Every structure is written in C-alpha cells, then in structure tokens.
Amino acid sequence: MSTADEIKERINELPKGSISKKQVNGNTYFYHRWHEDGKLKEKYIPEEDIAELKKRIDERRKLESYLRGFHSSSNGANHEFSAAVRLGDVLKAFAEPVRRYRKRGCFSILHEYIYGDYPDKVLILYGLRRTGKTTMIRQMILDMPPKDMKKTAFLQVLPSTTMAGLNKDLRYLEDNGYSFVFIDEATLLDDFIESAALFSDIFAASGMKIVLSGTDSLGFVFAEDDELYDRCIMLHTTYIPYREFSEVLGINGIDEYIRYGGTMSLSGTDYNKTSVFRNSRSTNEYIDTAIAHNIQHSLKGYQHGSHFRALQELYERDELTSAINRIVEDMNHRFTAEILTRDFRSSDLAISRNNLRKDRHNPTDILDHIDIDEVTKRLMDILDIRNKENQSIDITERHAKEIREYLELLDLVEYIDVLDTNGKISERTIITQPGLRYSQVESLVESLIQDKKMNDLSLTERTCILNRIRNEVKGRMMEDIVLLETKLAFPDKHVFVLHFPVGEFDMVVSDPESCTCSIYEIKHSEEINAKQYRHLIDKDKCDAAEHSFGKITGRYVIYRGNETEIDGIEYLNVENYLKNITK
C-alpha cells in the first residue's frame, strides 16, 4: 500500500468535526458535532473523554493537511515518499502564511546554520508545543532566494514512516540536488535515538543541511548524548523571555506575561482568547500532552525503554500530571515525596488568607470563614490533583527526583540561590513558563467564587478580594521572572536572594571579578513609598552585604511605575528592565 493510501486509511479511522460546548442552568456540557450526508449531527461527550476526542480530531485535521500537500514524485521519477513531503510551489504555499510574523531572537542561529560553515553537523530545533519551531522553519524558507528554495524540502514524519523509508527519501532528495532538508517530528520514528547518527554521518557529511525539529525535547537530548554527540547544534525554543513575548507577539505589560507567557500561540488582541493557558482545562491538557507525554514518549524510545525508571508507572496510571501540578502549585516548587503525597492544601490560598488579614488599609478575614474543605476539593478537581488515598502508586523520593531531572531537561525549571552572609542556605525553584503557574491562580479564583460566604459579599467587595489574591501571586511571580532573566542575562555574575535575620534583599547581582554588587527590591506596584526601599538604606544590612560580596555600586527598586530616583534609590520600570537586559 502506498503512503498516500495509508494516510487516507488512517483519516477514515479518525473522527471528523469539532467539539462545542453549551451552558445549561449554569452547567457546561460538551458535544461532538460533525456533518454526515449533508446533515449536522451532534453527540454528547462526557468531560473525561474530551481530551482523547480532541486529540483524534486534531490528528485527522493534520493528516488531511498533509494529504493536501503530499508530493509523491518529482521530475517524473517513480519515488513514493515514506514521509509527507512539501516541495516547490507546495512548500512556498506552506511557508507563506507566516510572512507577516516577527522573528524570535534564536532565529539567527537557524539562519547561521543554513548559510554558515558547519560540516558534518545537523541542527536540532526542539521545544515544547507552541514555542515557534515550525514558524521559524517557515520563516527560514521564506528568507531563501528562489534558487535555494528550489533545492529545499520539508518532510513530515508520519506514524507509518520508518527510518529505512526516511533514509530512502533522503537519498532520493540528495540524488536530485536537494541541499536543504527540514524534517519535522523526527522523534516519532521508533528507532530515532539509536539511529540518529544517519543524519549527520551520511547526509550532513555529504554537504546536505539537515534541520530536525519536534516537540519531543527529551528524545533529542538523548540522541545528542547517545548518537549525535558533537555532530549537532542544539537550538531549544521552550523558554521565551519577556522581551520576545512582547516584541514578537505585540503584547506589552508584565501582567500579560505573567498570565499567558510561555508559548507563542498567537499575536494581537485576541491572543489571550487562544492562549494555551487561558483556563485550567487547557492548561491541564498542555501539561498532559506537551510535558507528561513528552517524558513518556522519550523514555519509551530510549534504550528500548530501559530508562523509564519510576516515571513509567506514574504516567501509565494517569498520575504524572497530578504530580507536576502539585509541584507547580507549591509556593517553593519543591521536588519531594512529602509535597507529592501529603493532603493537598493550596499555598496560594494560605498566603492570601494571611496577607488579607494583616492588610494595613483594608484588612479582611473573609478567607477564614469560607468552606476551606469544599474550596480545596473543587480546586483539586480542577487541577486533577489526588491525595494519597486516591493515588494508585506509593510515590517515593525516587519519583520526585526523576520529575525534577526531566523538568530540568525540558527547560521548565531554573534555580536561584538563597544566601545569607555566611553562604548558601537553600535554592529557589522558578517555573519558566509563567502562564503555566498563573493558570492555577485562576483555578483558585474559579473555586472561590462558588463559595457561599464569598457570594454573600457584594460584587464590588468580591471582585476586590479576588483581585488582591491575584496580585499577591503576581508579586511573587514578578520576583521570579526578574531573578530568572537577570541570571540568564549575566552568566558571569552571581544572582541570588540575600536573607538577613530580619528582612531580605529581593535580588543581589554580585560580580566576583570586580568585587562589587548591586542590590534590588522587586515590587508589583505602580506606587512609590519609603517602605519599599527601607532595607536598601539599612546600614547594618548594607555593611554585611559589602563585607561578603563587595562594594555596593547601585541600589534599585524594580516596579511597574515610571522611572525616577528618590533618596539615592533608582526606580526602574520592570518592562523596560526586562526588555533591555536581554538585548
């Protein structure tokens, strides 16, 4: 059977149509809708079946798109491709829709590889879903002069594609003068990791420029370590700093980055309507399909599954997403068995309850009177979090350690040192996709607004309290974002949080070579008051910092207002700071 026939056969096995939802008496119901024999048909879908149905519908649409662009022969040659291939006018049409899109900063690395001198090397373009990989390839194709575009092919690996078949495709392209080949989702090949050297040792060594792209980040990491070693250039797209989020998507404001940052879903004013992190359901789906499935697929293909280790059972019992959600929700994002198994209590709710109680201007104890158990139960249902009695596996420190290892490989976590003047005392874990973290805050709000005591408040009072809860979390997240981007921007300096017996510097940037440091407070506020910088002018704290980390050369408050200077303290606007620091 030809590959085209296989695609058609698979399409016929998959559902067509779309998923719609209806609100009835305050409840949400989901329906599968499709046309058959000229009539619209509709079928109710239980909520637990939605993710699988959506996955199958998306697969059908993707295969239909591949079939439309399927190229089975060229120049009269009788070659049937194993992969779905775009060449010539079909390739140009495939690339054209992204012409108006702005380019990510890492695009220059792709361009340099295509036109630079990199003998025997392939480029691996990898990262989680919706971080701009395919868009970058299409932009690269559009940037090519016509003579090079004629020598360019885009191959999409299909479920039926084998390494042997792909090898024949590449030999055919090589024989027919193709010099630039982009291979998408190469890790779908069953034996990709063990056979990856084929791309560098055979085809790149013959002068062909090969770009391998895909969402299976761990699979590419394993291939680099196992087969490709020093014959590949790794270009990771998962981490998207504020400057890129703002400039590429045309969206400004630290709060928008906190709410939706982490993917390159769509630009313009409708961005948040289609963001991966627009609600808890879509976020859970992202964690399950983009992160948990990424880990599972990579481990399954690496050394015939021998590296599955403890996470296989978590994934197979549908409990890996629950574990990841617990870690993300925990205030300190700790990777411990205790965090993964204790009775769940929302850290966001606990911190907000304490801060609302002691608010100097409008204190309230409303969160002491809500039904904590019911709010927590609803939140757990939304986030798919299970307590120990509902877990089918005894989670151990081994599970926690492996989750940490793989989230690090996926570039989803980073660490900031927490010091006192005697040295390191701990580390602060930062989630690098802000929208992933913030969606949990909206899940908490979703649970709270169903509480009777909250609904006894007026709309104005309720809105004020819920926004204060949101802002509490935004404040902590803004600190994390500034710390992370500063650390990545200055790899030769030490960026850390400095604790004192009473109080702290939110950020210290120390230069060991010059024996100098700068000290910072980070505030999610547009207002200025002396309390914000009281630690920065505290003589005892500054003397202790200078003794351990060198002369203080700058004192700053990073906040959301206008830039100014007060009492020798420079106030920096957070958006300007983040845009300039990564240039």
Plain-language structure description:
The chain has 583 residues and is an alpha/beta fold. The protein folds into four domains: 1-63, no CATH class; 69-237, Rossmann fold; 277-286 and 304-412 and 431-477, no CATH class; 490-581, 3-Layer(aba) Sandwich (Trna Endonuclease, Chain: A, domain 1), CATH 3.40.1350. The protein has an eight-stranded mixed β-sheet. Strands 4-6-7-8-5-9 form a six-stranded mixed β-sheet, with helices on both faces. Strand 1 (18-24) and strand 2 form a beta hairpin. Helix 14 (280-301) crosses helix 16 (320-329) and helix 18 (347-357) crosses helix 24 (459-489). It is globular, with a radius of gyration of 26 Å. Mean pLDDT is 85; it is low at 71-77, 266-274 and 301-306.
